[in-house]
Amino acid sequence: MRHLCASVFVAVFWATLLPVMATAAEPEVRFETRVLDPHVGNICYAVTAADVDGDKLPDVVAVTENRVVWFQNPTWKLRVIIENQTERDNVCIAPQDIDGDGKIDFALGAGWTKIGTLQWLTRGASLDDKWHVHYINTEAALHRVRWGDILGTGKPQLVISPLNKSTAPQGVRLLAFEIPGQPKTDAWKATALDEQLNAMHNHWMGDFTGDGKTDALVACMEGVFLFERKADGTFLKTQLSQGEPGKPTAQVTGAGEIKVGKLGTKRIIATVEPMHGHSVVVYTEPAAGEKFWTRNVLDKTLKRGHAVGLADFDQDGRDEVVIGHSDLGTGDPKGPGVFLYTSGDADGKTWKKSIIDNGGIATEDLVIEDFNGDGRPDIAAGGRATHNVKLYLSPGTK
Predict the structure, then answer these.
(1) What angle do CA 147, 152, 153 make, to 5 degrees?
(2) Could you state, in chain order, the average pLDDT of each consecutive group of 10 residues for the chain (398 residues)?
(3) Cα separation of 351 and 19, whole Å?
């Protein structure tokens, strides 16, 4: 399978239970790097893609401790959405046309180390005006927000995952908020999908089971769990993996980041384990009779892994895994930065690691989207200690 790398690095051969990390050869997919902002804030907590100005081009949106900004495609001019209008620190964002006017709005989580505020943003009179902030609710340790019709109403709900136990004594409240008829003034009804798990660092929304319904996958201290809506409106919770093994403890066991992709027709799940962890893991579908998905460890040299994505960059029908970590790692290359893992077989047993950015960004978050309109996926990433926002464009293959 074709892959990318700027230089050759030493092959790493794990124990027999782990997939082989082969030596990288001359790259076939090459990324063009652009610095959108060298210092967007003290921390770039989150990045996403959205067509903010309605020109059919995806823009890059970045969240910092006190601002939300966007970079206008294709000039990448920075514009401020909000600044010092929410409880510090802003931490997560999700685009959606909330009020039905045909224009993108945003749900935003803030104050995550304290009260945890959930709000949504509507635009000002012009692209240069500050946006307006509208209150939704509060949830302690609010950490991630994503849209999906998990309740089956025909309209997307805002699904949130707090980092730690909130008002539920048993664990984290995984909540779905419904958009009301008048979202600026009416209360947003919340439905609890679960209240049992702990240290829930991230979640994914989509049709995982292939039945046409929206599901949720969560990465938490206890591992990876699937939530499916049943016919009676209740939710079936299924554990797919235990994640990093050991006695359950935050940042020691379980999983922290999660995304879903494919190897041909087969589903795969990519994670960083444990929370803020060192391992890149790909799960393949379980064999008949097996309870958990098959765990394949690709790399154990990260330090504070904090971003994951999947996309078919070389267009061979199999997704590559993109990983970002924010601290100096223990292997070669050490990072921090953005790295690509390419499968060497159709079963996801062997993988090759390639460099996208080694040392140029202390990755806190990344998003994959076709930003330059060439039909191929690109990457936008935001940095923690490096404070920057970067764009990695994939112009194609040889």
Answers:
(1) 90
(2) 36 36 49 97 98 98 98 98 98 98 98 94 95 97 97 98 86 96 98 95 98 97 97 96 91 96 97 98 94 97 98 95 98 97 94 97 98 96 98 76
(3) 7
Q: What's at 277, amino acid-wise?
A: G
Residue 30 has a pLDDT of 80
Nearby residues of 35 by Cβ (< 8 Å), 6 or more positions away: 388, 389, 390, 391
Residue for token pair 């509507």 = 122
In 10 A of CB 112, how many CB atoms? 24
To which residue do tokens 């929410």 refer? 86
If you search the block for the tokens 């829930």, which residue do you land on? 200
Are the CB atoms for 219 and 255 separated by under 8 Å? yes
User: d(Cα 96, Cα 112) in Å, to the nearest integer?
Assistant: 21
CA distance 78 to 363: 20
Please choose, from the candidates 165, 146, 162, 270, the residue with its C-alpha nearest in 3D space to the C-alpha of residue 216: 146
CB neighbour class for 385 (10 Å; exposed up to 12, middle 13-18, buried from 19): middle
pLDDT for the residue 29: 63
320-325 β-sheet, strand order: 21-22, 351-358, 337-343, 320-325, 305-311
> Cα angle vertex 323, ends 171, 87, to 5°?
50
Tell which residue, 283, 284, 285, 279, has the closest CA to residue 323. 279
Q: Return the bridge partners of 145, or none.
A: 160
How far apart, in whole angstroms, are the C-alpha atoms of residue 57 and residue 372?
8
